[in-house]
Amino acid sequence: MIKVEGLSKRYARNVAVDDISFEVDKGQIVGFLGPNGAGKTTTMRILTCFMPPSAGKATVAGYDVMEQPFEVKKRIGYLPEIPPVYPEMEVSEYLHFVGKLKGVPKGDLTKRVKEVSEKVNVADVSNKLIAKLSKGYKQRVGLAQAIIHNPDVLILDEPTAGLDPKQILETRQLIRGLAGDHTIILSTHILPEVEQTCEKVVIITKGKLVAVDTVQNLTNRLKGTQAVALEIEGRNTTLETAAVQSLLAGVPGVARVIVRDAKDNRIQLEIESEPGKAIRPDLARAVVQAGWNLNELHTAGVSLEEVFLQLTASSKTTAQGDVQ
Amino acid sequence: MNNIIIICQKELKSYFVSPIAYGLMAFFALISGYFFYIATGYFVQGSMQAQMMGRQMPMSINEQILRPVLMNLSVVGLFLIPMITMRLFAQEKSSGTIELLVTSPIHDLEIIIGKWLGALLMYATIVCVGMLSTVFVFVYGKPDWKPVLVGLLGLLLQGGCLLALGTFISNTTKSQIVAGVATFGVCLMLWILDWISFEQTTFSKVVAYLSVVTHFEPFAKGVIDSKDVIFYISMIVFGLFLTSRSMESLRWRS
Predict the structure, then answer these.
(1) What is the ipTM of this complex?
(2) Which domains does chain A have, with CATH numbers?
(3) Smallest CA–CA distance from A74 into chain B, residue
(4) Other CB atoms closer than 10 Å to residue A275's CB: what's the count?
(5) What angle do CA A213, A219, A223 make, to 5 degrees?
(6) A to B CB pairs, distance under 8 Å
(7) Do A70 and B105 touch (CB under 8 A)?
């Protein structure tokens, strides 16, 4: 559905996007991940024909963003970082206006506005001035604006930025609900968001592509070892961190013992196994035999956060290497 | 075409939901009423003096009331322009709504013309409200109405050309204040350029020719001179052309 090949964008002094290539299939939700200033917004702006690329090619639904911007614009719904709403308009008036701009046929317009308002839960405020709405509602109106013409592709720039936790959950649900009908690219610097909503991740830092893969593959890629989280409590006796550490390190198959937290006579540990070894039964046995309480024991998969940090950190070192 | 109307409607509406439209109309009506009162006062005084002296003097409502009022309004109009145009693009840029317009399937030129037309209709409304006081001369006298219409046309053309320049200036900045001040400066310059015409050099003639107010004078008299119409229309086209260039350059630089 979306195909980006060797895309670059240079501003006067700096390179915002440097030779990025990726593809998105129809109906996929793709997370566009990177720290602030990585070039996410720039890439999205190129895809939405807001600005042309300096080099490379991008096609949306088979249409080139440079050569046939009109066809691309018709098929894209775009929610910029700040929802592009007019505070002096009422919600339904605004959606009518955007519908007309996007070329929704006159006969369908009222019906379409109603449908969309219900879909994103703004029907109850449809006669309110946008200026009077809360940030969460404004964001939803922004989302309604993006899907009013039922576009094939939705591009959402940090759709959950600045919302409270409840609104974030609602927005994520909403986005997941939109998948299937639409191909969605959403940018974010919040990792759990990608883990929860997206099927595929594109990671960029400093304008460079770091990884394109499914969430599953990315976490598996760095998961050759198994990590186990433990909480141990001392029974009648005071727990000594060093003693615990040395005992657990002696369990066969354990590669590393990290103390996460120690307070109130309780110790939280994270233990990494040697590759391909199951260590949980032995660990449990060792703790119980030592006469401690085993409060908690579960496997902790490597989170996307760690993957991300490892990937972006390694790209940083190579970049520095290039300079030297 | 359809898109132009959509944008134009939106612009016009956003003027009327804010106090600015009403404020400007009230201000303009007040000023033009004042001018009208003064012009009528002089006219009445003049005709009384002529009667007392028993001399025949040529008196014309068109020449002595309507023409000075139109001339004054054309100058006051210069001060309205920045207040109308400053928000056109600057506001959209600072609030981010420009991204919506630019990523919608419509041409830049449709956005620009729509906005300019919205501003022009706003300006026309203000001028018409300002001209209301002249209704009195039609009630109590029999002036020729055609020169009044020509004068209104002149006001619209002059306004249109300054609005086009204001639209361009608003497109170059994110700040409404900057846009307003710069537009005000340009309007002022275009008015006073013609004061240089006491000199008779070619240079000063060219400079004076650029003054928008000079080209309005024939309209105030009730004369439509194709030279002036072409001047105004080419200024409008020039202003809108600059705006479209500016929008395009933003896209490449942004």
Answers:
(1) 0.87
(2) 2-221 (3.40.50.300), 227-299 (3.30.70.1340)
(3) B105
(4) 11
(5) 135
(6) 66
(7) yes
